[in-house]
Specification:
Largest sheet: 8 strands, antiparallel
Structural class: alpha+beta
Number of helices: 5
Number of strands: 13
Distance between the termini: 31 Å
Shape: globular
Helix content: 25-40%
Radius of gyration: 19 Å
Length: 260
C-alpha cells in the first residue's frame, strides 16, 4: 500500500495511491456519483452506505477495485437527534476516519479478512468535521445475520460450516489483538462458499491478546446481537447448537495459539 495525503480547501483525504492514483473531495459526494450514473445500489442500515461501480474513465485509475463502498459517518444514540454527523475536530490523527482507515490498513496488511481500505475523508467546519470512508466492496457476500434462520441457505455453504468459520475467524482477529467495539451479526459478512469477513472498525482498537476479558466481551456482544435479531432472551434448539459450534471453533484456535 502507498498511503498519501491530499488536502485542499479544508478537505483532507488519506488514500492508497496504489489503488487510486488521483483523488479529490468529489469522490465522497453521493450526488457526484449519481450524476455520473455510477451508484449501483444502497447498502441499507443506519450508516446508509452506498455501493459505487466505477466505469468509463475511472476504470483506468481503479482497475483493481471492481466496486466501492462509500460510508458517511453518522452518530448513533440520543445525541444523533441533535447532531447527526458532526464531530469535534482535535486533529487529523484523532479523527475517527483516520483511525479506522489506519487500523483497517494494518489488519489488511496482516492478511486478516477485511475489506481493502481505499480512502478516508474529513471536511473541517469550524470546530467540527464531517467524515467519510471508502473501502472495496466484498463480492458475493451477505451479513451473518441472514444465517440465523436454518434452512434459508440450502444452496450456500452448510450452516454448521458457516458458524464454525465465524468462530475460527473471530479467533484469528482476537489472536492479533483486534478489540471490535461493535461486533454484531451485521458486521460479519459471509461469502457463498462460507468465507468470513469482518467489517466496520470505527472506534475499534488493538489490545493485548493475553488479556481475555475484552475478547469475551466481544463474543458476548455478538451473542446479544443475535438474540436481539431473533427476538429471544436465550438461544435454543438448532441455533443453540450452532452457537456452540461457533464457540468451540473459536476456543479451539485460541487454545492452540496459547499452547504454541
Amino acid at each position: 500500500m502507498e498511503i498519501q495525503l491530499y488536502s485542499k480547501n479544508r478537505h483532507h483525504i488519506l488514500y492508497d495511491a496504489q489503488q487510486i492514483p488521483q483523488i479529490n473531495e468529489h469522490w465522497f459526494e453521493q450526488t457526484w456519483w449519481q450524476d455520473k450514473g455510477q451508484i449501483s445500489e444502497p447498502s441499507g442500515g443506519r450508516g446508509q452506505a452506498i455501493f459505487i461501480q466505477p466505469r468509463g474513465d475511472f476504470c483506468t485509475t481503479v482497475a483493481t477495485v471492481p466496486e466501492l463502498v462509500l460510508r458517511h459517518y453518522r452518530r448513533g444514540g440520543l445525541i444523533a437527534r441533535l447532531i447527526k454527523d458532526r464531530y469535534l475536530f482535535t486533529g487529523l490523527e484523532n479523527s475517527r476516519p483516520w483511525q479506522e482507515f489506519k487500523l483497517t490498513c494494518t489488519l489488511f496488511e496482516q492478511g486478516l479478512p477485511v475489506p481493502r481500505p481505499i480512502a478516508a475523508h474529513i471536511q473541517q467546519q469550524g470546530l467540527f468535521y464531517q467524515a467519510d470512508l471508502i473501502t472495496e466492496r466484498l463480492p458475493n457476500s451477505q451479513p451473518f445475520a441472514n444465517y440465523l434462520s436454518p434452512g434459508k441457505h440450502d444452496k450456500d455453504a452448510d450452516l454448521t460450516v458457516v458458524w464454525q468459520n465465524v468462530g475460527h475467524t473471530l479467533a484469528c482477529f482476537h489472536r492479533f489483538g483486534l478489540n471490535h467495539s461493535d461486533l454484531n451479526a451485521n458486521n460479519i459478512l459471509i461469502g457463498t462458499t462460507g468465507q468470513v469477513w469482518v467489517i466496520d472498525f470505527d472506534r475499534c482498537q488493538l489490545d493485548d491478546p493475553k488479556q481475555t476479558q475484552w475478547q469475551q466481551n466481544n463474543i458476548q456482544r455478538l451473542q446479544r446481537s443475535i438474540l436481539k435479531l431473533i427476538r429471544q432472551e436465550q438461544l435454543s434448539g438448532q441455533l443453540l447448537t450452532l452457537w456452540q459450534q461457533l464457540y468451540q471453533s473459536y476456543h479451539l484456535l485460541l487454545s492452540k495459539t496459547e499452547s504454541d
